[in-house]
Design a protein that fits this description.
about 80 residues; mainly alpha; 1 helix; rod-shaped
Length: about 80
């Protein structure tokens, strides 16, 4: 049974290689998931910035609309006052 020792060593190395390969695959999956989350978060921050810009424009539009309405009211009041 002199040949048994090298065979056991080969089996042991094969099992060790298999475990290392599984661990490497598991780590690769984790890295892929992490990269996907990072890309998703980056995309979300871009969307948040776009949403904030659109919200600012909407707010500015509301302000202009408010001031326009105030100007119209003042103009109508002046017009009514000048008639009488």
């Amino acid at each position: 049974m002199v040949m048994g020792a090298p065979l056991d060593d080969a089996r042991h190395l094969a099992q060790r290689y298999h475990r290392m390969r599984q661990e490497a695959e598991s780590q690769a999956i984790e890295v892929s998931k992490h990269q996907s989350k990072v890309r998703e978060a980056r995309g979300n921050s871009e969307n948040v910035m776009k949403l904030e810009a659109a919200d600012a424009k909407l707010q500015e539009s509301r302000i202009w609309k408010y001031w326009g309405r105030k100007q119209l009211q003042q103009w109508q009041q002046l017009r009514l006052n000048n008639r009488y």
